[in-house]
Amino acid sequence: PRLLVLPLGCFALLLPPPGAAEFSPSLDSDFTFTLPAGRKECFYQPMRKEASLELEYQVLDGAGLDVDFHLLSPKGETLVFDERKSDGVHTVETEDGDYMFCFDNTFSTISEKVIFFELILDNMGEDGQDQEDWKKYVTGTDLLDMKLEDILESINSVKARLSKSVQIQTLLRAFEARDRNIQESNFDRVNFWSMVNLGVMVVVSALQVYMLKSLFEDKRKSRT
């Protein structure tokens, strides 16, 4: 399956334009991009009937850590709408066609957003093909203590658990990136206000010294 990236202004199209960027074939894809202020970016994902599309997104950086999210069916129907949220997880059962999802930052006029999202596609047909390939080599299994179907089931179980581990690690990296951005922002804010307080203290100290000094000055004019 391919994930096609479209620029702002292609929101109403149902087919991706030629030359658009795409992911390599994979059932699990993640992407991080910068969404400028006042912009909206849309992506397309071709899906098959009776498959499953799971999408998780997070705002890693930017003022407010929020964004609008839309998910539309191939018929143009709105399946999901999140208004100014920092993260979300959505799973839909799909039909044949291109699903479109958009990240909208038009409500912000100053701050850009760094957004991470991950796509997990299930029942896309590859597993069934793998099982058919295995069946070509199933001959004389009655003589074996463990049938090839049992081996295949064990391998698929290990594969599923490894895939889940990779997904969890990817999400943890996204959480770590967002926390690091927040900490760096707080660090810069603390340094700024510390310098402001230091400057105020220096000015107040100089003013106090001047006022104390003026109290002890002899302002009487000397007589000649």
Automatic annotation (TrEMBL):
Residues 40-121 form the GOLD domain. Pfam families: EMP24_GP25L. PANTHER family: TRANSMEMBRANE EMP24 DOMAIN-CONTAINING PROTEIN. Belongs to the EMP24/GP25L family. InterPro entries: Emp24-like, GOLD_dom, GOLD_dom_sf. This is TMED5 protein. It is a single-pass type I membrane protein. Keywords: Endoplasmic reticulum, Membrane, Signal, Transmembrane, Transmembrane helix. Residues 1-21 form the signal peptide. It comes from Aramus guarauna (Limpkin). It is found in: Endoplasmic reticulum membrane; Endoplasmic reticulum-Golgi intermediate compartment membrane; Golgi apparatus, cis-Golgi network membrane; Membrane. Its main location: endoplasmic reticulum. PROSITE patterns: GOLD. The chain crosses the membrane at residues 192-212. GO terms for cellular component: endoplasmic reticulum membrane; endoplasmic reticulum-Golgi intermediate compartment membrane; Golgi apparatus. Coiled coil: none annotated.
